[in-house]
Amino acid sequence: MPSSSPVRGLLFVTMQPKETLSLDLFHDWYNNEHGPNRTRLPFMPNGFRYRATDLPGTNAGTRADPEFLAIYDATDMHQFTEQPYQYLRAPPGKTQREINVMAQIWVDRLTLDFVGERINDKTFVKLESPEHFKENEQGNVLTTLRLLLTPEQVATVEDWIRNTVLPKVQEIPGWRRTSWYKTSYLEPREDGKVDFVLINEYTPSTDPKALPPILEALPVDISERKARTYELFYTFGTAARHLAIVAPWTSPDGVTKTLPNVSPYGSAIESTVTTRDGAVLPFRLEGSSDPNAPVLVLVNSVLTTWGIWDGFLAHFFSRPQNEKYRVLRYLARGRAIPSGTISPVTVDVQASDVIQLLDALRVPQATGLVGVSMGGVTALATALQYPARIQAFVACDTSAKSPAGNKDTWGQRIAVAEKEGTTLRLASLFGDESESPDTTPQNVVGEELAEMTVRRWFVSESYDNPQLVPEIARVKRMVYTNSLPEFRRGVETLFNYDYTGLLPGYKGRGAFLVGAGDGVLPKGMEKLSKELGSAEGKTAAFKLVEGAGHLPMVEKPREVAEFVGDFLSAE
Question: Which portions of this protein are annotated as coiled-coil regions (predicted)?
Answer without folding.
Answer: none
